[in-house]
Amino acid sequence: MEVVNAIGRRKTAVARVYVSEGNGKIMINRRELIEYFPSPILQFIVKQPLNTLSAVEQYDIKVNLFGGGFKGQSEAVRLAITRALIKINPESKPALKAEGFVTRDPRSVERKKPGRPKARKRFQFSKR
Fold this sequence. Notes:
The chain is an alpha+beta fold. Helices cover about 35% and strands about 25% of the residues. It contains four helices and five strands; from the N terminus they run ββββααβαα. It has helices at about 35, 40-50, 70-90, 95-100; strands at about 5-10, 15-20, 25-30, 30, 60-65. Strand 1 and strand 2 form a beta hairpin. Helix 2 (about 40-50) packs parallel to helix 3 (about 70-90).
């Protein structure tokens, strides 16, 4: 099997994933998964598509990740891994779609508007 690549985005985080056959090693920006995401919740989010397909020990994954915060980065990696797994085996798509991993979450921070303190907040109205 050759290397399969995919891209995943969430908020401002972008993850480029390279999946090859291996023994379950996940490297993010040349660091181990446990080292990059010390939180077990974020590690779980990254491994969700692999756990769904029972393929945790089958693939080596290399990730280039930039932008965003911890949560956005972990969800970007999850989407990228999902897309790569679908490229490898298209029959796995219904199982991943049922869990909601195929959908790109479009929500991001709304921009600040001029003449306002935040995106939607307004300054206190004074009648007189």
